[in-house]
Design goal:
The chain is α+β, with helices and mostly antiparallel strands. It is built from 14 helices and 31 strands. The strands form seven sheets. Strands 1, 3, 4, 5, 6, 10 and 11 form a seven-stranded mixed β-sheet that branches. Strands 2-31-30-29 form a four-stranded antiparallel β-sheet. InterPro entries: WD40/YVTN_repeat-like_dom_sf, WD40_repeat_dom_sf, WD40_rpt, WDR47.
């Protein structure tokens, strides 16, 4: 073996040991050196699996039917499962028809337990919330899919025993062990020095803690832990008592069903030197971003609280928020509005300096794991930081003549951003790549205060001081509906019951009903609803399918500045300048009112899939609330 080939094989071994499968496969492709050879047929199978060529994979495995039905079923299940997970997780807009077709194919070849386990994933917001797929990525999934398939194919194809033994020893679930970069060091110059700095342990500095109220904290934690424990016990009992393959097992991830406003507790808070005006979650729900009157944008990690809620980790510890990254002087003025693109690659903000800033997101998880304190970026340079720091890219969009009050991404296209502002009456459509205005939508005669998007981006809703709720079709560049609220006060905010979050949750629920419950259900025709917050605190509900007013609520006594539906659309939350949060149970119509802030509440956001709320206020805090 040539020295260079031996070196490459050693590097491949290290990459595989550390589960860097993407780099592993790319090195094999570029060098032409393979770590192991399985024979002509299996080498080809390896290539098409790693590249995700599923039509060719099906052609390859079909002849197995004439040789062994059992082996065919096992391999077909493994391949179809990987294809299903890729379509479910790798697309921001998974197509229901495609997913249904694949699940039906899987049901034909899977054993009942494996099929039910796969279907249970539909109850999760993302695949990595499942304990068997914590470290799942597209390339890791393909690699492990191949390894599992080879164990089955070895019964038919001649594979050297030493090779199959290596493969069998590698397979497992998606959990990756902690790897040491120094293992790879002997193949590169100066890597020893670099690995020393990486191996240095650190404790992430806690930035903000919730107020100390031991009686309240203990009670909240007690109720919370009991709820999770009872769910877990129920799940175990069901597994022991019944083997009915159609039975649904309660998951502690379904705690959205247990939400009640009176159970809310403050889990943690973030403080600033000035009022915090706006906020947004990323789609995964791991991070949120804040826009402040101190002209800064703060990206915060919610991992600590999500882990507590989902997995009952960190028992007995205080809950806190990590402020991972701060972009100072993001604008010349206050940050009035903010939105996080559904791809999680961009954040857009608007300000009273009349500009919109598009901020291209670095890898916040990498920053969080590598930095011991908040990483601060200001005037094009880092003010602190350790090691290699990511490049920060920003773009400024100019076109508004006054304060930018709202920005809203198209859920399926980062290049499309909508905005509205004070005194103009036009809604702007921007191309975020060129920074240019694509279209202006005239129609309002007052200031546009808020824009909301339908889940697939097929239409958008806007509200303004002219007391009109308008729906816009971007394909025709025209208003498709106008709902007149002349009898109401000026409109401050709007949200839709079929936004991206709700549409995604509904698609997964439909799949779960089809393949888990095993019972015939009449399709429920649900009208789409728009909720509007008004200047006098009134909350109005509009049936946008029928084009008429449904109801109104008067539980606030001052401006209602923000409102949003929960992911299951069972709850509507609103916030007000009277310092309160209001809730409407959309099934019963009953409303509730709670207070957590010491001043006006400016924005309120639901977590994408958990009973977690994020509120921001003129009291200079952002507070995370949960049951």
């Amino acid at each position: 073996m040539a020295a260079s080939e031996e070196t490459i094989k050693n590097i491949l071994k290290s990459l595989e040991a550390m589960k860097f499968y993407s780099s592993f496969y790319e090195l094999e492709r570029e060098s032409g050196v393979k770590l192991r050879n399985y024979g002509k047929e299996i080498d080809f199978f390896y290539e098409i699996v790693m590249e995700g060529r599923y039509d060719e994979i099906q052609t390859f495995i079909t002849p197995l039917l004439s040789r062994s039905q059992g082996i065919y079923n096992k391999v077909a299940f493994l391949v179809k499962r990987q294809e299903f997970l890729e379509k479910l997780e790798s697309s921001s807009d998974p197509q229901l028809d495609d997913l249904v077709k694949i699940l039906k194919d899987i049901e034909k070849v899977a054993n009942p337990n494996d099929f039910n386990t796969l279907c249970s994933i539909l109850s999760l917001n993302k695949l990595t919330d499942h304990q068997d797929y914590i470290d799942w990525t597209l390339i890791i999934g393909r690699k492990l899919c191949f390894q599992d398939c080879v164990k089955c194919l070895s019964e038919i194809y001649p594979i050297p025993k030493v090779q199959i033994n290596e493969v069998v020893g590698e397979t497992g679930n998606m959990r990756s062990p902690k790897s040491n970069p120094a293992e790879l060091g002997k193949y590169f110059e100066n890597s020893e020095e670099k690995s020393e700095t990486k191996e240095e342990p650190f404790n992430k500095k806690v930035k903000f803690w919730k107020p100390v109220d031991k009686s309240s904290d203990d009670e909240s934690r007690r109720i919370f832990i009991e709820a999770l424990d009872s769910d877990e016990e129920e799940s175990i009992e069901q597994e022991q008592e019944s083997e009915d393959i159609g039975e649904i097992k309660k998951s502690k991830l379904n705690i959205m069903e247990n939400f009640q406003p009176e159970k809310l507790r403050e889990m943690a808070k973030v403080e600033d030197i000035k009022p915090i005006r706006c906020s947004a979650f990323n789609v995964s729900g791991d991070y949120f971003v804040l826009g402040t009157n101190s002209n800064s944008i703060k990206v915060c990690s919610l991992h600590n609280i999500v882990d507590e809620l989902l997995y009952n980790e960190h028992q007995g510890r205080e809950q806190y928020i990590d402020v991972v990254f701060e972009l100072r002087k993001a604008h010349l003025g206050s940050v009035y509005c903010i939105d996080w693109a559904r791809s999680e690659k961009q954040i857009a903000s608007g300000s009273n300096d009349r500009s919109i800033k598009v901020f291209y997101c670095p890898d916040f998880l990498q920053i969080q794991e590598s930095q011991s304190e908040t990483l601060i970026f200001e005037d094009g340079a880092y003010l602190n930081g350790e090691g290699n720091l990511p490049e920060i890219k920003e773009k400024i969009l100019w076109g508004h003549e006054n304060i930018v009050r709202t920005v809203c991404y198209n859920p399926v296209d980062d290049l499309t951003l909508l905005s509205g502002g004070i005194g103009e009456g036009n809604m702007f459509q921007w191309n975020t790549e060129t920074g240019q205005i694509v279209t202006k939508y005239p129609g309002h005669t007052g200031s546009i205060f808020h824009i909301a998007a339908e889940g697939s981006g097929s239409y958008f809703a806007s509200v303004a001081t002219d007391k009109k709720l308008k729906l816009w079709d971007l394909r025709t560049s025209k208003s498709m509906m106008t709902l007149n609220g002349e009898s109401f006060a000026e409109m401050n905010s709007v949200c839709l019951s079929n936004s991206f979050t709700q549409a995604r949750a509904e698609a997964k629920n439909k799949l779960a009903e089809m393949f888990l419950k095993k019972e015939e259900r009449r399709p429920q025709q649900r009208n789409h609803v728009a909720a509007v917050g008004h200047l006098d605190g009134v909350v109005s509900l509009w049936d946008i399918t029928a084009g008429k007013l449904m109801s109104k609520y008067n539980y606030h006594t001052a401006d209602c500045r923000s409102l949003e539906f929960s992911c299951d659309t069972n709850w509507l939350v609103s916030c007000s300048f009277d310092g309160s949060l209001g809730f409407v149970n959309m099934k019963t119509g009953k409303n509730y009112k709670v207070e957590f802030h010491d001043d006006r509440v400016v924005s309120i956001r639901w977590h994408p899939y958990l009973p977690i709320l994020l509120s921001t206020s003129a009291d200079k805090t952002a507070r995370v609330l949960s049951i």
